[in-house]
Amino acid sequence: MFDINKILRPNIKNLTPYSSARDEFKGEASVYLDANENAYGSPLDKDYNRYPDPMQYQVKKRLSEIKGVPPRNIFVGNGSDEAIDILYRAFCNPGVDNVIIVPPTYGMYEVSANINDVELRRVPLTEDYQLDVDAIAERIDKNTKLIWVCSPNNPTGNSINRADVETLLANFSGLVVVDEAYINFSRQKTFIQELTEYANLVVLQTLSKAWGLAALRVGMAFASEEIIEVMNKVKPPYNVNEASQQLALEALANVDKVNGWIKETLSERDKMVLGIKDLDFVLDIYPSDANFILVKTTDANGIYNYLVQHGIIVRNRTKVELCEGSIRITIGTPEENVKLIETLHSYKG
């Protein structure tokens, strides 16, 4: 049975969070002289002299309408990476606790573990890039606080078997974090729908991928109210700036446009696969539920360097565990994709 008090760090449990001026007064006034801001405005076309809403209420309200989750179950951060770091700082005692990752997977889980001095336990995915549930169970001990699952997975692109994730949720007393950065491109339904069933579930999403807001750094975590309260307690007081909040709200009003991009991306992904699958140096193209494909080749380094020479940048993943010889190709515009396909067809090896 999950009990947040059993995995929460004692110092975080007893922490009194910083109380900002915007926390102490939340109404409307004509004169604000409480936060030591520049009262004259900003040397820009738009004023940014006032601190932003520390809890991003309007953004959460709109996300609530789109995702079907109450605002109290939503954390908004400076990219998903902030949520990842906060989960380490809130639930993992440095030098004592450990977490489990399932490589190949998103690299920030490991980087944040190292920054926070938390032991990292690797349980590689199977050959078909699925969870090895039995091996994960063998690595869990009393100090295991988090299990990280990226689905659809980066860099492999496939969705993780839902039943396997549910097995972890039902049998693990720590947090299972399901990173759904690419869920908008997936045929699999989001785990957000399972929040009421699993108290130890945290779902990460982002506006960086399908929503096209990578430069603004807006990420989300969805979890129980008690987990979100902890994350808000630990975060910096104004972790998402005013410009990002305003622009995110504008973007979130354009769901139809984003859905159109998603549809076109999936169509272009299929064209990309058809365009390169019969090339002599392509050994395999793994099934993808994301806006990229992982391609196993005979010479990842040579292909990568050849593409660079032609002004095309892909991601060389040959040094990643279980991705030897592979390159990761993001699906671009139709014109960009045609250029990549034509360039690959001219590669002689």
TrEMBL record:
GO biological process, one term: L-histidine biosynthetic process
Enzyme class at the top of the EC tree: transferase
Family listed: Belongs to the class-II pyridoxal-phosphate-dependent aminotransferase family. Histidinol-phosphate aminotransferase subfamily.
Species whose genome carries this gene: Mucilaginibacter myungsuensis
E.C. number: 2.6.1.9
The protein's annotated pathway: Amino-acid biosynthesis; L-histidine biosynthesis; L-histidine from 5-phospho-alpha-D-ribose 1-diphosphate: step 7/9; Lipid metabolism
Gene: hisC
Listed NCBIfam families: hisC
Record protein name field: Histidinol-phosphate aminotransferase
Keywords for this protein: Amino-acid biosynthesis, Aminotransferase, Histidine biosynthesis, Pyridoxal phosphate, Transferase
Catalytic activity reported: L-histidinol phosphate + 2-oxoglutarate = 3-(imidazol-4-yl)-2-oxopropyl phosphate + L-glutamate
Keyword Thylakoid: no
Modified residues (N6-(pyridoxal phosphate)lysine): 209
Reported cofactor(s): pyridoxal 5'-phosphate
GO MF term (any one): histidinol-phosphate transaminase activity
Domain Aminotransferase class I/classII large: 46-343
Complex and partners: Homodimer.
